[in-house]
Amino acid sequence: MGFEKFDESGAGRGRPAGTEPMISLRKSASIGVNRPALEEYFGDSEGAVMYYDEDENRVGIEPVADTDADEAAYTVSVTDSGGTIAPKAFLERYDLVPDVTTQFDPAWADEDEQSLIVLPLDSPSGTYGSADDADEDAGDADAAGDAASDAESDAASDAESDADEE
């Protein structure tokens, strides 16, 4: 019969790569944003302000022009496959670093205002990897190139942690 090309990459995680917006809380204490979510929710925004709603157990992300727009803003590092936000202090402060990378379907908090992107922590859309994985895989539906994103994330996280301590 010969070889048959498999062209459904990413389908093993529940959906084909890059089709639906998805944001992941990574076990590396960063946030992964796949390309569709980056385009739909962030546009040209290069910064993100983080919020936590304890009563509803949800994370809010406010896209802002850049880190100069708000002193609490984190950088949104963009790659070909999506983006990374490295709010390590935020995730640790609210005990939100998951044991495994956990994926969420984002939505605007208020469709009229479109100010906060909401991740409902009680309703994950999936997980990726396992708690004891040696590598810190991203878990976004569009995982290609995330090794570079994770390296950028670690560098950004270190830089922001240093800035937070000043």
Description of the molecule:
The chain is an alpha+beta fold. Helices cover 20% and strands 27% of the residues. The protein is built from three helices and ten strands. A hairpin with an 8-residue loop joins strand 8 (107-108) and strand 9 (117-120). It starts with 22 loop residues before the first strand and ends with a helix.
In the sheet with the most strands, the strands line up as 8-9-4-3-5-6-2-1-7-10
Query: What is the CA-atom radius of gyration, in angstroms?
Result: 16 Å
The mean pLDDT is: 80
Distance between the termini: 65 Å
User: How many H/I helical runs?
Assistant: 3
Order of helices and strands: EEHEEEEHEEEEH
Residue share in helix: 10-25%
Question: What is the percentage of strand-forming residues?
Answer: 25-35%
User: What sort of overall outline do the alpha carbons produce when their principal axes are compared?
Assistant: globular
Structural class: alpha+beta
Unreliable segments of 5+ consecutive residues: 11-15, 134-166
Major sheet description: 10 strands, antiparallel
Tally of strands: 10
